[in-house]
Amino acid sequence: MKKTILLIIGIVIIGLMIYFLNRKTVTDFPAPSEVTQQGVNGTPPTNSSSTTTDQATAPVDTTKTVIGTSVQNRAITAYHYGEGANEVLFVGGVHGGYSWNTSLLAYQLMDYLQANPNSIPANIKVTIIPTLNPDGLYKVVGTEGKFSSATVSKSTAVQVAGRFNANSVDLGRNFDCNWKSTAVWQTKEVSGGSSVFSEPESQALKSYVDTRNFAGAVVWYSAAGGVYASTCDGNPSSPTIKLATLYSKASGYPSYQSFDFYETSGDVVNWLASKKIPAVSVLLTNHQDTEWSKNLAGVKATLNNFAK
Predict the structure, then answer these.
(1) For a surface tag, which of 137, 150, 178, 306 has the fewest beta carbons within 10 Å of its beta carbon?
(2) Interacting residues of 208 by C-beta distance below 8 A, sequence separation 6+
């Protein structure tokens, strides 16, 4: 009888011990989900599955690339359309607010390609830099990014001042092709910078172009009404002459093998030619109009040329 009672007491004691041990385990430690979210004792977890997943799936915007910033820290952005292997570059706003219509033309083209993606040949990627000189453009339009002609200052003096970057350098004279520190614009002396690529805007384009393999390039300016082939110390290449001829025929602008109204040392497009990129300068007829239909026809001819 005693053995039976002792056995029962032993079983009860063991049961109580197991009960209190289990209770301590549950109350002293957080639930598995709490460990994942907060860590033990409130310490942030390391290598948690949620953090790893967020980092692995963070979206990458492949539609645009900030290639650099201006003197006044405004972004210089390249926008991308299409996914083909042959990349074609279009650049506006080298001369900022003085040629504000070239930036407006670039934004019009961006809107068109966004609405009409099928207009881009299958093996073509279009990259558009609407404004290489955002500080100069801001002087004239008073806003960053897309703008309308209604915001443009009507002051000729303001527009002329908007040609230059915030260091008073003509970016169209700061590139590595026959560069000079004192350059010429029409009959005026202008600054070409303290050295080749001295300006952050020029450096941004150089660095970006150096990392790409562009099939061709078109740079818009105003105002002379023509398509000009590019070269640096020599005759334009056959692909460059072909591009100038195609854009000219499609748009109706006359075509020229060189720009010889005055010396253009440190020119952007001639620098592109020195890098073996077929490139042309397209000068709009005036400083107000984008001549949209003419240039759209020229753009389509350009894309079809490099799609072959």
Answers:
(1) 150
(2) 65, 67, 68, 78
**Which residue type sits at 196?**
V
Report the relative pairing of strands 124-129 and 75-81 from DSSP bridges: antiparallel
**One-letter amino acid for residue 302 of the chain:** T
Total domains in the fold of the chain: 2
| 141 and 227 co-located in one domain | yes
Q: Do residues 92 and 102 lie in contact, with contact meaning Cβ atoms separated by under 8 Å? A: yes
Alpha-carbon distance 162 to 72, whole Å? Answer: 13
* Residue at which a domain ends, from 33, 54, 75: 54
Kindly report the pTM of this predicted structure.
Answer: 0.81
Bridge partners for 126 per DSSP: 81, 88
Asked if the structure places residue 59 within a domain, the reply is no
Alpha helices in the chain (DSSP H): 2-28, 32-38, 49-56, 100-115, 134-141, 156-161, 200-210, 238-251, 268-274, 292-307
The DSSP result for 234-296, as a single string, is SPPPHHHHHHHHHHHHHH---EES---SS--TT-HHHHHHHTT--EEEEEESSSS---HHHHH
Residue 37 phi/psi, 5° resolution?
A: -80, -40
- Here the tokens at position 250 are 């499609």
Residues 35 and 180 in one domain: no
CA-based nearest residue to 205, from 266, 123, 117, 290: 266
Cβ(220)–Cβ(285) below 8 Å: no
Taking the C-alpha atoms of residue 48 and residue 36, their distance in angstroms, rounded to an integer, is 6
Domain that holds residue 132: 64-307
Q: pLDDT of 113-162, one tens digit each?
A: 999 999 999 999 999 999 999 999 999 999 999 999 999 999 999 999 99
β-sheet bridge partners, residue 153: none
